[in-house]
Structures are given as C-alpha cells and as structure tokens.
C-alpha cells in the first residue's frame, strides 16, 4: 500500500534501511543518518535490520530499502534480496557496471524487472566515475529522502482545492501535458517523477499550479493538483492550497517563477535516453549533479537560463530536463512545450 502524501509524514512513520555491500563511499551511512535527522525519518543500516520479522508497529507507514550491491547483473541482485524487498513499501537497487556496454546490455533486464515488481523497485541509474558506472553518492543520499518523506520544504496548507476551483483551461493544460508524457514516455523510473506547472497570476504574482508529489503524470488525476500561494526562501516555507503535498520540486519551480518573470509554464520530466543523457544536449546542462528540492538549485538554473540563449529547455545533469514557456495562455503554453518536445524527438 503506497502512502498518498496527503500530509507530511512524521519521523516515527518512516524507516529507511540501507544494505551496502560495495562500500563505494565510506561515509554514506553517516550522510544518510544526517539527512534522516534533518528531514525527519528513521534510519537503519545493515541487512540484519530486516532479516528478523518486521515489527508491525502501527506507527510505521512507509519502509524504504536501499540496496547497493553487484556488478553488471541487476537480476541477480534483485533475486538475492527479493525477500527483503517484499518487507518494504519500496526499494532502490543500485548496481555498479564495469563498462558502458554492460550497462546498456542490462537495460532490458531492468525494464522487465520493473514490470515484474510493478514499479516497487527503482533501479538507480549509474554515473560515470573513475571509468566505472557506479551510483553517485548524492543520488543515494537524495534517494533516502525522495523515496521516503519526499519533501524538503516546510509545508503550510491554507485550504483545500477542489476540481471546481481550477479553471477549465488550466485543467486542460495539465491533461494535455499528461497525454504528451504518456505518448512520448517522458520518464525513466516511473511516470510519478517530475512535475507539471503553470503560473496563476490571478492568485498573486508568483502563484502557480503544480502537480502534487507522487502524482502519475502520464494518467493525471486533477484532484492531485495544488495551488502554490507563496514560497519564503528564508524559512523554506511553501504555502499552498490542495488535498495533497505539492511536488518535492516545487521549491525550484517557485524560485524560477520568482526570478524569471517571463516564464509562465514549467514541465520537468526524467526522459533519460531522449534528453538528460543524450550527448546531443551536453551544451544545455544548466547545473552539474545537484541535490533536488532546494532554493539554490532553482537560482543556479535561473542564472544559466539568463546567461544562455535557451528559452525552450535545459538539463539538470544526472537528474532530468526542464521545459520552459513564456507564452501567456494555457493553450499557447502547451503548444510551445509540445512543439519543443516533438521537434527534438523527430
């Protein structure tokens, strides 16, 4: 049973387990432990923490397992830990690869395994480091957050947001972008990654609608859209209306809407093969591998856009792509983003 993120999870409700057999980063466990204290989740390291029968404490709503093991064989690693995976709400498996070719040969197995486990397992894409394809340390730390409590901001819900509250042209924008994401398969892990957003000047100069965290962007449910009232960088407080927590990337979106007044629409996807890892777009990398959900990331992207000539899309290295539009109506914003994506994929 997946949590719906209708509210922020409490520390006692979330446990992240780490099983690290490769020991690529000696201080990884300490780094995740620090993240657990900062963002509010319990952390346990070692397979032994899950070998015994899981304590079905009613307070625990979500258990996430991170496995770092194996060279070149994700199927072997998956089978090795299948019993532990079944004890958890979700799991991330990070396998290292000896070469680029072995990584690409394993991709079909990974896609099959994702279907077999019905999306329960996230197979973390490796980063090229010291001529080996290994999982990046920052991605592992971020995974402990984004697959558990998810948000780094302080949420402040001011009211509900019903479907009737959302203008028809705004709803149509979200539905059409959702169709585009589904048809073009603009995601790697799952269609719950990324966000769709559009500015809403009627509610304030920096207000915007955005998909809620863990929303299926390829088959969107309009009830999982939030209206961001404001974001306070000093307190990291995100004020919103809605039934569910706004996207974990709402902070970056808020900063971009604040700093780049010409932007009226933002769509963030994780189409690794088509865009993020496509050598054709190396010149569009706005930021190197960075921690998600933080104001500084938004400012660095904003600075790159301002200094570059790119007004259609940019890339966050090892993360995903961000499509932009300066058009002024929801339909025109959709057409702008649609033309950009289809033009690049032809």
From TrEMBL:
The name this protein goes by in its record: Class II aldolase/adducin family protein
Species: Microcystis aeruginosa G11-04
Superkingdom of origin organism: Bacteria
């Amino acid at each position: 049973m997946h949590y719906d993120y209708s509210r922020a999870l409490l520390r006692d409700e979330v446990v992240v387990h780490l099983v690290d057999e490769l020991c690529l980063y000696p201080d990884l466990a300490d780094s995740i432990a620090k993240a657990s204290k900062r963002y509010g989740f319990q952390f346990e390291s070692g397979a032994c923490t899950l070998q015994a029968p899981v304590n079905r404490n009613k307070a625990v709503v979500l258990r996430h397992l991170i496995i770092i093991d194996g060279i070149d064989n994700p199927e072997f690693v998956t089978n090795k830990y299948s019993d532990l995976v079944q004890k958890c709400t979700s799991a991330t498996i990070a396998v290292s690869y000896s070469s680029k070719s072995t990584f690409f040969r394993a991709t079909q197995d990974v896609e099959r395994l994702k279907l077999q486990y019905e999306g329960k397992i996230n197979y973390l894409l490796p980063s090229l480091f010291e001529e080996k394809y290994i999982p990046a340390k920052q991605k592992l730390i971020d995974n402990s957050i984004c697959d558990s409590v998810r948000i780094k901001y302080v949420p402040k819900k001011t009211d509900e947001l019903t479907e009737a509250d959302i203008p028809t042209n705004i709803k149509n924008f979200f539905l059409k972008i959702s169709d585009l994401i589904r048809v073009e398969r603009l995601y790697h892990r799952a269609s719950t990654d990324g966000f769709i957003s559009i500015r809403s000047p009627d509610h304030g100069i920096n207000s915007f609608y955005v998909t809620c965290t863990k929303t299926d962007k390829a088959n969107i449910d309009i009830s999982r859209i939030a209206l961001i009232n404001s974001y306070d960088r000093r307190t990291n407080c995100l004020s919103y209306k809605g039934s569910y927590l706004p996207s974990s990337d709402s902070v970056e979106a808020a900063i971009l809407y604040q700093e780049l007044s010409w932007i009226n629409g933002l769509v963030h996807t994780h189409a690794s093969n088509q865009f993020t890892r496509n050598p054709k777009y190396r010149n569009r990398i706005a930021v190197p591998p960075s921690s998600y959900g933080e104001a500084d990331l938004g400012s660095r992207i904003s600075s790159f856009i301002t200094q570059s000539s790119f007004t259609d899309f940019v890339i966050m290295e090892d993360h995903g792509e961000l499509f932009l539009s300066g058009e002024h109506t929801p339909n025109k914003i959709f057409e702008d983003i649609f033309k950009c994506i289809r033009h690049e994929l032809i």
